[in-house]
Design goal:
The structure is a homodimer of 457-residue chains.
Chain A (H helix, E strand, L loop, with lengths): L1 H9 L1 H13 L10 H17 L4 E5 L6 E6 L6 E8 L19 E3 L2 E3 L3 H21 L4 E8 L9 H7 L1 H4 L3 E4 L11 E6 L1 E10 L5 E2 H4 L6 H11 L21 H8 L5 H8 L12 H6 L3 E10 L8 E2 L2 E10 L5 H15 L5 E10 L2 E2 L5 H14 L4 E5 L4 H10 L3 E3 L15 E3 H23 L1
Helix pairs in contact in A: 1-4, 1-15, 2-4, 4-15, 5-14, 13-15
């Protein structure tokens, strides 16, 4: 491994240059005006695999943004690994709150600041860097299949059918997913559970057009009021989601799992510092780490209605709408949750207000097997680098691909990534700690070694 | 009067051309980018008074948009009338819902469509047209003082101090306010009561920046949730405003006044047609006309928070804000209402969410004296034109100047205008019925006649 580590060390500056190039491309998947940049980003990535002399590199069109498939086939592989990543990023708003420009990657102290730095361009590139380090030094007896999408941040609407139609092409012993984090700079961790997602847009309509609030105020329903009343009713006063039947299928947390989660180092003070709130809040009867990873939640992600410009306009608006997402845990299915939401609206929305509910994206929750040689290999690789065993966590975020890979390709995933909890992903000032990233590249390289070794036993 | 009526008739097309010019100027007072147009509009109006050979015409600078003062002094006036109007208009959003362009006045059937058509450029010009018709034909023994502002739609922030500093200049026997409506095309009406206003902007702040809703959702307060909960608590389930002490100073409606209001022709079906809602809603125990004119109300005029672009973004937002206005009735003072609102927020907002409340504009409520010779003159002028006595109404809108003129100049106002309830003022498709407007110009001309006659008795 020394030669490989040396390669990573002596090529680190080249790698940073490459990372800056990658981060400069505004590959925002949700905004149509960035469609060209998305293509430019996918093509940039394609060239990188060609430079690694991969056996096969393909840009695959979908109904949305293109997928990249790249394959390295050695003479006698011991294992096949499906490596997942995404090259798209979130929008940058509110742009005024960024201290650096989101698509002009800037290194300050130990971190690189840019949209996508942590989620997940750095992770993806560091993993590819580990592959490069191997290929430059030793034969790698692993068959690698990279599947990199450009639509993760919009709920991966097209990858599922690609998995269904390409089972053979994508067959592997397990999947490595680099869209993951590490608990703290010196506390290695493995995420073994992810929440699912059901992301909705709800629109209410009252009067047929905007009215003068003086002439009509107090005589008809205001759709903003009704939207607010509905949102207020979506939680009870104990912080529980109040949609009918919402918790019906939720698997209770076992004592064993509560114990495992309680071993994860966690500081309320740090959580407050990261978020900037003076106190935490959530469902009664659970710890913060349980709430975030093992309990479902509902958040309004956006709301708009009426006059929102500068100053005053005395309008009684015709419409109001909200983006509302729910994070799900086993065994909640997005389909059941949509049903539950529709029932709630049916029961609670007054008849003179019409409502329209659209499901933007959804993902099933996933819990991964802790007892495979792949998981053990990841554990060992982390322990070697950090000098201590990793902790096992359940994450609050959603990575729909993990459940789909399990359902469709029938293989388990190992999540291994190096984003930190305070990297501001999805928010202004997103960044990646480069010291941690370098250790990450070493872990990825070592993970291959562990896989080869464990498979040989 | 025949010569005057003939003048109005034979010059009607010229008048319409002039009205179109006036309506073409986008004098939107709330949006800074229209500042030049506001000036252009004030100057256009100044020229019109100069063309009428007024004794004095002045454009007066304020901290905001300019005021126009114009004075006509006959040799031996019987009365002095202060005529109030405003030349500014509301913004045009949502622009997509207009069928014609808001600043390209378009006549369709009997109406002219444009922003400001009904509120109140047509009213103001029709009243000036009546003055012109008099001056072209007969000596007018009335001293006229026009005071026309450019900030009515933003709450008249500068006219109050102008009144205070110019009591002598503005002294008059009474004020005529043309910023008013008529009940129906064939039902003349006089508005004798106006609601007051307190217009606020409320901003809530939770986490120090936008966070990933998966990683943090369910563990800290979401400011959109809190804003919605607060808004939901602002009314009880009987449609009453639930701020502490909100109704404390509200004068109860007398039986006599309830009787007067019950005589105003009113159709629930028509109200539903105008607004496009399937059923009406409001404070229990009051009729719709009582609710709109004689009872206070609270409306959220706008709300915004989090991600409101296209598609999905899984954000737990840092901020959320709402524009909230309350319509007040005698004797509610905007200052007391602000106090009541602050107390509510103090009590109801959870401690980890910080709130900021700004008062954008305010106006006291006003009820006018029904027993003056000025009011009688208006009644007679309406009866002559429409062949029936006017009904007396209390309007839900706010015209702060009415109360200020009473408080500062110690004179009563008569409201006389010809906007119809379904003219879509402040909304898309604002228009003015031109047949009604022509009758209005005749009423204004006749009103002068009645004033001269009644004063001579």
């Amino acid at each position: 491994m020394d030669k490989i580590y040396n390669y990573l060390e002596s090529n680190w500056n080249n790698f940073l240059g490459r990372l800056k190039e990658f981060l400069s491309i505004p590959s925002i998947s949700t905004l149509p005006e960035y469609k060209k940049d998305i293509y430019r980003c996918a093509e940039w990535l394609k060239r990188k695999f060609e430079e690694l002399n991969f056996t096969k590199v393909e840009l695959i069109e979908t109904r949305g943004h293109p997928l990249l498939f790249a394959e390295y086939i050695p003479p006698s592989p011991k294992l096949t690994v499906l490596i997942y990543g995404h090259y798209d990023v979130q929008p940058t708003d509110p742009e005024s709150e960024w201290k650096t420009k989101p698509f002009e990657p800037t290194i300050i102290l130990d971190s690189i600041y840019a949209r996508g730095a942590s989620d997940m361009k750095s992770q993806l590139l560091a993993q590819m860097f580990a592959t490069e380090a191997w290929l430059a030094n030793e034969p790698l007896p692993l068959h690698l299949k990279y599947l990199i999408e450009g639509e993760e941040e919009i709920g991966s609407p097209n990858i599922r059918s690609f998995l269904e139609n390409n089972k053979e092409k994508l067959s592997a012993d397990f999947a490595l997913n680099c869209d993951a984090g590490i608990h703290a700079p010196d506390i290695p961790s493995i995420t073994y559970g992810l929440r699912g997602l059901a992301y909705f847009e709800l629109e209410l309509k009252g009067p047929k057009q905007d009215l003068h609030s003086g002439l009509y105020g107090g005589t008809i329903r205001n759709p903003i009021h009704v939207l607010c009343e509905l949102i207020a009713k979506m939680h009870d006063d104990k912080g529980r989601v109040a949609l009918p039947g919402f918790y019906d299928k939720v698997l209770p947390l076992s004592e064993e799992e509560r114990k495992l989660l309680s071993q994860v180092p966690f500081s309320e003070e740090e959580w407050k510092n990261i978020t900037g709130v003076s106190q935490l809040y959530g469902e009664e009867g659970y710890t913060t780490l349980e709430r975030v990873g093992a309990r479902p939640s509902l958040d309004v992600n956006g709301i708009i209605g009426g006059f929102t410009g500068e100053g005053a306009k005395t309008v009684l608006p015709s419409k109001a709408s909200a983006k509302i997402s729910m994070r799900l845990v086993p065994n909640q299915a997005p389909e059941d949750i949509e049903e539950s939401f529709r029932q709630f609206l049916q029961e609670e929305c007054p008849p003179e207000i019409t409502w329209k509910l659209e499901l933007h994206s959804s993902a099933p929750p996933a819990v991964m097997n802790l007892n495979t040689i792949y998981m053990k290999s990841a554990e060992n690789a982390l322990e070697k680098e950090f000098g201590r065993k990793p902790v096992f966590k359940r994450e609050g975020g959603s990575v729909p691909i993990v459940a789909w890979i399990k359902q469709i390709l029938c293989i388990d995933t190992v999540m291994l990534g190096f984003a930190l909890p305070d990297d501001c992903i999805h928010g202004p000032g997103e960044h990646q700690n480069l010291k941690v990233l370098k250790r990450g590249a070493r872990v990825y390289a070592n993970f291959y070694q562990e896989l080869v070794k464990n498979r040989s036993i």
